[in-house]
Amino acid sequence: MKLNKPTILLAKIISIILISSAIICELCSAYILVNNYESHNYLRFLLWISRCALMIHFIESLIVVYHIRLENKSYKNYVKYAIYSFLVGTVSLLELKKNRNKV
Question: Residue 31's domain spans which residues?
Answer without folding.
Answer: 5-102
